[in-house]
Amino acid sequence: MNRSMTGQYVQKDSVLHKMDARAKLLCFILLLVVMLKAKTVFSYGLAAVTLVAVCALSKLSFSALTSTLSRMTTFLIVIFLMNALFFSTQEAIWKWGIFTLSREGIVQGLHVVAHVVLVLVLSNLLTCTTTPIELTTALEVLLKPLKVFRIPVEMIALVLSVALSFIPTLLQEADTIRKAQIARGARFESRNLIEKARSFLPLILPIFLCAFRRADELSLAMEARGYRGAAKRTKKAKIPLKKSDLLALGICSCICAVQFFL
Amino acid sequence: MIQAQNVGFAYETDEGLRRVLHEVTLSIQSGEMIAVLGQNGCGKSTFARLCNALLPMQEGKLTVAGFDTSDKKMTFELRRVCGMVFQNPDNQFVSSVVQEEVAFGPENYEVPRQDIGAIVKAALHQVALDGFEHRAPYTLSGGQKQRLAIAGVLALSPKVIIFDEATAMLDPMCRREVLAMMKKLQAQGHTIVMITHYVEEAVLADRVALMQDGKILAFGTAREILCDKEKMDAAKLLMPHAARVYYDLLAEGITLPMCPLTEEELLEAICRFN
Predict the structure, then answer these.
(1) Which of B76, B88, B138 sits opposite A226 (nearest CB)?
(2) Does the beta carbon of A234 lie under 8 angstroms from any beta carbon of chain B?
């Protein structure tokens, strides 16, 4: 629990760190399309080259960018096997009961794994180069059009901001509860997945209770400081996008367009 | 600054109404530092929440800085002049960046965006957190966190600041930091109401309201209240250590010139004793 969280903001002096969060979020969406649209060797090449270039621009270490992957190895193997063994086809290489291994299945599995890996690294890039508050502010701006449908955009942004600020506190609380339970004989270190899952059950209730108690106290503290709803507050300053942000958006749009032709 | 007349309050529970405040009457002057002292569950925090209109008035009359707390139309304005700092700093933070956290209050009062920067800077300077603007609140120490919570309140320039057991979760060092901050704020003209069950903290107050079972047992200067063995016993609280030594010496036939509240006063009284 004490180690830094995966995808947490890493302070660096890079082009990506300096970029406006709104532009960064839009570029992220465009590049997400580039990653997910990859099907052929060329399109994968384009996706990979783009990702490597953006990673280089971020000045982040290799471990910061790939830390999620190492923690999700089991998940990646499972999704590969699910696709490889359950892909329905006539030409099976190997068959046993409900399992059918085929060339198409393996290709499909590799596609899915490659897409997940590309998306995970891209997401890491976004969260490691943007502070949570920048992200929520950008989200609030980008979701503004939804106000037409009476969606409380400011409220959603505030909820996200509060949730983000509560994560470290709740992690600390969870760690305290875990240690208290270990001191009373609880075992969390079992390698058996079912046993491990079962051992975490006694943690869930106290964590939930603690979260509700904190939420109650926070609502009082917010009210005491004059909070009346997100709509009746000083509006965020309107900062225009810089030329460099617009340029980045243009480049990402071009890459996205090219990907559709590959 | 705060006038309470026969204030009463009861919570609804599964077993019926649970009365926590009975005819509380007290008057707090502008610029005073008052300690509301009592055991846990004696109604101190309920009184504090009534002052900030976080709870609706049920009985009696309570005015804070001229605002009637039962007037719902004025609640918003009342909360601007009467700030409140809670026990657990972690549960008071809305933002994950210090400057955004301090700006939360002014933003709620629709203070023009161009003025907020200066307000945040001044509030952080007041609590000696200059340079912490871009830090995440969870990376601060306990005392720093509570000072940040105070800065969040100061950003609204309140006349009254209520500290609801604001030192209860802090270690002795951080507690000293926050208490020093309270004294500093009083010197700057703020009226301070300190809700506490620590007798040693109440020593710092100009006057002490001693509470027991939702009633004010006594209200007077810190020395009058904290050195009154009968009243302190009735409130089921221990007197400050120095006062206890005074009574122990008295039992042995040694009468010091005055009942001391602090170790320093005790030392001085012993040195002067002939």
Answers:
(1) B76
(2) yes
Q: Do A223 and B94 touch (CB under 8 A)?
A: no
Chain A residues closer than 8 Å to B93 by CB: 165, 218
Amino acid at the residue A77: I
pLDDT above 90 coverage of chain B, percent = 43
Q: Do B100 and A133 touch (CB under 8 A)?
A: yes
B88 to A217: CB separation less than 8 angstroms, yes or no: yes
Delineate the domains of chain B, giving CATH numbers in brackets. Answer: 2-239 (3.40.50.300), 240-274 (no CATH)
CB pairs under 8 A between A and B: 92
Nearest 5°: CA angle at A193, between A188 and A199?
A: 35
Question: Could you tell me if B118 lies within 8 Å of chain A, comparing CB atoms?
Answer: no
Residue of B103, B80, B112, B129 whose CA lies nearest to A161: B103
Contact at CB, B91 and A218, closer than 8 angstroms: yes
Residue B41's φ and ψ, nearest 5 degrees, are 80, 10
Per-residue pLDDT reduced to its tens digit, B78-135: 999 999 999 888 888 888 789 988 998 999 898 998 899 999 999 999 988 999 988 8
Of chain A, the end-to-end C-alpha distance in Å amounts to 44
Q: Which two tokens stand for residue A42?
A: 């060329």
Q: Chain A window 105-164: which residues touch B at a Cβ cutoff of 8 Å?
A: 131-133, 158, 161-162, 164
Asked if the C-beta of B89 comes within 8 angstroms of chain A's C-beta atoms, the answer is no
| Stated length of chain B | 274
Kindly give the pairing relationship between strand B16-28 and strand B2-13.
antiparallel
- Identify the DSSP state of A199: H
Place of tokens 């950003």: B155
Choose, out of B85, B87, B94, the residue to mutate when testing the contact with A (most A CBs < 10 Å): B94
Q: Which positions of chain A have pLDDT values less than 70?
A: 1-7, 89-90, 188-193, 196, 230-231
Distance CA A196, CA A187 (A): 8
Q: Which of A131, A217, A232 sits opposite B91 (nearest CB)?
A: A217
What values do phi and psi take at B181, rounded to 5? -60, -40
- Residue A2: what pLDDT? 42
Under 8 Å between Cβ of B52 and B75: no
Token output for A45 = 């090449």
Identify whether the C-beta of residue A103 lies closer than 8 Å to the C-beta of residue A87.
Answer: no
Q: Which two three-digit tokens encode residue B8?
A: 């009463």
pLDDT tens digits along B248-264: 888 888 888 888 888 88
C-alpha to C-alpha distances, B113 to A139, B116, B135, nearest whole angstrom: 20, 5, 21
Residue B37 pLDDT class (50, 70, 90 cuts) = very high
- The answer to whether ipTM exceeds 0.90 is no
CA distance A142 to chain B (A): 20
Tokens matching residue A89: 């086809």
